[in-house]
Design goal:
28% strand, 11 helices, homodimer, 407 residues, nine-stranded mixed beta sheet, L-amino peptidase D-ALA esterase/amidase, Ubiquitin-like (UB roll)
Chain lengths: 407, 407
């Protein structure tokens, strides 16, 4: 497997576009299209929030019922959540419009929205936007980047990646893009992510791979503990790589899962590091846990702790908050048997062991905590299980961004 | 029942003191003593964090094993958490010293600490502090206030209250004090709270009353979702009101529970409103829930949502975040059947119903959200159960306070 340039247009037969539709934002791209020249099998995972946005309800049905999918239309600015029947009517209008303009069935169109909750999307603007998208769509890498830019809300950079790998002697490409960066918390992690691949695979195996993967990728990140109403991960596979179709588990499936995990983890880390107001990516690796479930719970608890996040922002080696967050996670352990390290490109220091603080240098700790990527390594000494979670620090800018997000 | 002046010295036979011991802070009171002239039955509830501070481990044993308790020694500045054997030795030294100076058994002394985790308490300073406390102790209301000031960390005001009520023809007094204001999250809510009463009651019934009460008082507040290592609620009852002893449930027990709930709710609200960096008390009342458990879960989820808290700080009627927080709480419901109101002394506006936004005035909403106490009323229309949770907004100052708390 090898990383290459590009995003959602990297795989064969995929086109994309990102344009300005003024759905809510002005003077920036706010609508994206992903289009496959041939029908795709599609799979998806969606928010577990009881309050689901209209596009989530819409896509859940399409992914389940439509045998093939050929396009995704997404907008930023307005989430189309808590919008009642009018919100679902908007999804229908989008699919009908996109179907007509792209010459495909409306049932093969997926939709996604992100932005402020509770406001209705102006349907005339969004259909006019689809017209522009259909005209602008292209297979270039730039078109993929335009799409990645168009789905951003409070993100500061677009997030895309592509990889190639071999399946039954054929080169397969997998590309993706995603956006954060507030209301980011697992289950399904609060975000939009779109993956495209020319892999030939059954719908069932595609769904299986994605569902298994998110548990240790997107669902292991948190910016603020708020699980959104709009979380959506969609993957489209059009089969143009012409590999022997993956219809069951085996070596080919494993190769795909490995590439998938590389891509989703890359995007998840980007999302965490670009969390609202973030100045640092904050990673927590738990090793030696008694169970996988415990490892995940412990790692997640640390990256979700407001106090720990504020300390990371302040480059303050306040490790007591980390131990505290492990302690209230719900996992059982003996605090006397835990070891903690702070790590970054600047080095690694042992900070807690045998139930008390180690004799570390505060200066060295501050240096490590001043790097843009900071890792807390936790050894529970209870077993062999590991997990990694990703978050970011809590800064003044998080408050600033969210105190008046709607205006 | 009637509220009166005072705090922990309001009830008959109780004395207190607050003095400067320079445990960590300089030029401010940082050690408190509560002393009863006669032996008390005691009850307590403690943090559920796996990582328990030394004084928590110590007090759990004393409350369980000692038939009578007569004093509480508390310090702020250092939490005596993650301090290993040396931390427990410190507790022992405190109790021995206090026992000698007060002329009581060391087994009848409780200890409590709050502040930074992972640092050892200088035992010489704390024993010198106990000497000062023993000399300064007094039954005046000022002495109670001194004690309330001495347990403060990032709190901006001391928090105390006292009430009187009648039991079997006798006037009983119940007083209390507590401190917040970071690492505040239930189970047992992250805090120190000390209650004193001259009620005559069995230890068993006292524990029963306190354990039942915290579920709907202290455990319903959250400042930042971090459950501390040090949470401690202690109540001492010395029987000097000379009422017929409460030995079982009944009218007398109910009268006491009512007074207890008034006092704990008062202190809990004070703690939430004085959360780190808070500019407003943020209350969420859930009515019409299917079960009590659901009502509590829903109310807590809203006051814990970082995004909602930031919106309250910005006086921004971003109700979508509230619906989102209800949705990921874990409770099941139909979003189309929920009604939301914003309320304050300035008025009440219906903001969401029938699955969409109501036609409310943003100006009026901003006015309500600019008051120092803001309530979100949520009607689930699913049953008769209710719950109220208390939190505060998320401000720049929360980040400021916690980015460099240790220095």
């Amino acid at each position: 497997m090898k990383q290459i340039q590009g995003g959602v247009t990297a795989a064969k037969g995929f086109q994309a576009a990102g344009i300005e539709a003024a759905v809510k934002y002005r003077d920036r791209k706010d609508m994206a299209l992903i289009y496959s020249e041939t029908p795709c099998v599609a799979a998806g995972t969606f928010t577990t929030n009881v309050v689901k946005a209209a596009p989530v309800l819409w896509d859940q049905r399409v992914v389940k019922e439509s045998p093939y999918v050929q396009a995704v239309v997404a907008n930023s600015g307005i989430a189309n959540a808590c919008t009642g029947k009018e919100g679902l009517d908007c999804c229908e209008a989008e699919c009908r419009c996109a179907g007509e303009l792209l010459g495909i069935s409306p049932d093969s169109v997926l939709v996604a929205s992100t932005g402020v909750i509770g406001r209705q999307i102006p349907v005339d603007r969004i259909t006019e936007g689809i017209r522009k998208l259909a005209a602008a769509k292209s297979h270039t890498l730039e078109a993929g980047t335009d799409a990645a830019k168009a789905i951003m809300t409070t993100d500061t950079v677009e997030k895309e990646i592509a990889v190639v790998f071999e399946i039954s002697g054929k080169t397969v490409t997998l590309g993706g893009m995603c956006k954060g960066s507030g209301m980011i918390h697992p289950n399904m992690c609060t975000m939009l992510a779109f993956l495209t691949t020319d892999l030939q695979i059954s719908k069932q195996m595609l769904q299986k791979a994605v569902s298994a993967d998110v548990v240790d990728s997107f669902n292991m990140i948190s910016v603020d503990g708020d699980t959104s109403t709009n979380d959506t991960l969609l993957i489209l596979a059009n089969g143009q790589a012409d590999n022997e179709a993956i219809l069951e588990e085996g070596a080919d499936y494993d190769t795909f899962c490995e590439a998938l995990h590389f891509v989703t983890t890359y995007l998840a880390r980007k999302m965490a590091g670009d969390g609202e107001g973030a100045t640092a990516l904050f990673e927590t690796k738990v090793v030696g846990a008694a169970s996988k479930e415990d490892a995940r719970t412990l790692a997640k608890s640390v990256v979700c702790s407001s106090l720990t996040k504020a300390a990371i922002f302040g480059h303050d080696a306040n490790w007591g908050r980390i131990l505290c967050a492990l302690g209230y996670s719900g996992a059982q352990f003996d605090p006397e048997n835990v070891d903690l390290w702070f790590q970054s490109v600047s080095g690694s220091i042992h900070i807690y062991g045998n139930g008390v603080a180690c004799d570390y240098s505060e200066e060295e700790a501050t240096k490590i905590l001043s790097d843009p990527e900071v890792t807390v390594l936790v050894d529970m000494h209870m077993g062999e299980q590991t997990a990694t979670a990703w978050g970011c620090d809590l800064s003044y800018d998080y408050v600033k961004i969210n105190a008046d997000y709607r205006s």
